[in-house]
From TrEMBL:
<dbReference type="InterPro" id="IPR003561">
    <property type="entry name" value="Mutator_MutT"/>
</dbReference>
<keyword id="KW-0227">DNA damage</keyword>
<dbReference type="InterPro" id="IPR029119">
    <property type="entry name" value="MutY_C"/>
</dbReference>
<dbReference type="InterPro" id="IPR020476">
    <property type="entry name" value="Nudix_hydrolase"/>
</dbReference>
<dbReference type="InterPro" id="IPR015797">
    <property type="entry name" value="NUDIX_hydrolase-like_dom_sf"/>
</dbReference>
<dbReference type="InterPro" id="IPR000086">
    <property type="entry name" value="NUDIX_hydrolase_dom"/>
</dbReference>
<comment type="similarity">
    <text>Belongs to the Nudix hydrolase family.</text>
</comment>
<keyword id="KW-0479">Metal-binding</keyword>
<protein>
    <recommendedName>
        <fullName>8-oxo-dGTP diphosphatase</fullName>
        <ecNumber>3.6.1.55</ecNumber>
    </recommendedName>
</protein>
<keyword id="KW-0235">DNA replication</keyword>
<feature type="domain" description="Nudix hydrolase">
    <location>
        <begin position="12"/>
        <end position="139"/>
    </location>
</feature>
<dbReference type="InterPro" id="IPR047127">
    <property type="entry name" value="MutT-like"/>
</dbReference>
<keyword id="KW-0460">Magnesium</keyword>
<keyword id="KW-0378">Hydrolase</keyword>
<keyword id="KW-0234">DNA repair</keyword>
<keyword id="KW-0515">Mutator protein</keyword>
<dbReference type="GO" id="GO:0035539">
    <property type="term" value="F:8-oxo-7,8-dihydrodeoxyguanosine triphosphate pyrophosphatase activity"/>
</dbReference>
Length: 144
């Protein structure tokens, strides 16, 4: 009997996540601290969340930023896509610049948030997959 185990692992599902790099006019970027009880709890992140069935990634990002940090996305532009294997799951971080938005950002789930300069991103602890997002931000510099 052939062993089908490796194939089972290959077809394991990838979690599609919409991630927003929200940048203000002064170049600062919005980050938020993940609630402790979640996957990667306590680490800082770019706000976002899972794309639900029947949603586009843009719709998902707009919904997540409204739910998590109370801002209204007005314009988006693609930044990068990062696939990362954590021991417990595989994520596809579909990452977008948020180039226009309305509202004052504030953590709607009690989480801390901060507007940080690009150079300050290195002072915060992010999930491992974010290293490549930060590199993409540095490579682009800014959407402004
Ligand atoms: N939002 C976000 N998720 C990230 C980042 N980096 C990273 O590895 N992730 C991972 C952590 C999670 O496994 C997954 C995103 O899931 P999530 O917990 O934000 O999803 P969600 O907002 O839909 O939350 P829930 O409804 O499942 O509670 O992607 C990041 O910068 N932002
Ligand atoms: Mg989320």
């Amino acid at each position: 009997m052939p062993n089908t185990e490796p194939e089972v692992q290959l077809v394991g599902k990838v979690i599609h996540v919409a991630v927003g790099v929200v940048q203000r006019g002064d170049g600062r970027i919005l980050i938020a601290r993940r609630p402790d009880h979640l996957h990667m709890g306590g680490r800082w992140e770019f706000p976002g969340g899972k794309v639900e069935e029947g949603e586009t990634v843009q719709q998902a990002l707009t919904r997540e930023l409204r739910e998590e940090v109370a801002i209204e996305v007005k314009d988006l532009k693609p930044l990068t896509e990062i696939r990362h294997d954590y021991p417990e799951k595989t994520v596809l971080l579909d990452t977008w610049w948020v180039t226009k938005f309305k509202g004052e950002a504030s953590g709607q789930e009690g989480q801390q948030s901060a507007w940080v300069a690009v150079a300050e991103l290195f002072d915060y602890q992010f999930p491992d997959a974010n290293q490549e997002i930060i590199e993409a931000i540095l490579a682009t510099g800014s959407h402004l």
